[in-house]
């Protein structure tokens, strides 16, 4: 999981599957300076709420009910 080659491959597949232009994202990320302390880091409560929303939607869809969230 720490392999740069693996992440590059996954990124290319992601761009291709979602119809995104990889050159646009490379320009945007190269012009920005990311600092670890400025990135969003969700709290454990936020992570749990997100997981719960996804879990409930998947359970609803598995029993034939419509999804509530547009995820």
What's the short story on this structure?
The chain is mostly helical and 71 residues long.
Keyword list:
single chain, 71 residues, mainly alpha, extended, Mrx7
Written account of the structure:
- Pfam families: Mrx7.
- InterPro entries: Mrx7 (IPR020301).
- The structure is a single chain.
- By secondary structure, the protein is an all-alpha fold.
- The chain has two domains: 1-33, no CATH class; 42-71.
- It contains three helices and no strands.
- The radius of gyration is 17 Å and the shape is extended.
- The model has no long low-confidence stretch (mean pLDDT 78).
Topology, pairings included?
Blueprint: H1 4-18, H2 22-31, H3 44-62
Pfam families: Mrx7
InterPro entries: Mrx7 (IPR020301)
Order of helix and strand elements from N to C terminus: HHH
Strand content: under 5%
Q: How far do the termini sit from each other?
A: 26 Å
Shape descriptor: extended
Biggest β-sheet description: none
Range of helix content: 55-70%
The overall number of domains is 2
How many individual β-strands?
A: 0
| Uncertain residue segments | none
Which value, in Å, is the CA radius of gyration?
A: 17 Å
Output mean pLDDT.
Answer: 78
Oligomeric composition of the shown chains: single chain
> Pairing-aware structural class of the strands and helices?
mainly alpha
* Number of H- or I-type helical stretches: 3
Pfam families: Mrx7
């Amino acid at each position: 999981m720490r392999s740069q080659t693996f992440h590059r491959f996954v990124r290319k597949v992601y761009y291709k599957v979602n119809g995104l232009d990889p050159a646009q994202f490379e320009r945007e990320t190269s012009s920005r300076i990311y600092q670890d302390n400025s990135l969003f880091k969700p709290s454990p409560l936020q992570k749990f709420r997100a997981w719960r929303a996804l879990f409930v939607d998947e359970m609803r869809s598995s029993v034939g009910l419509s999804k509530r969230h547009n995820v």
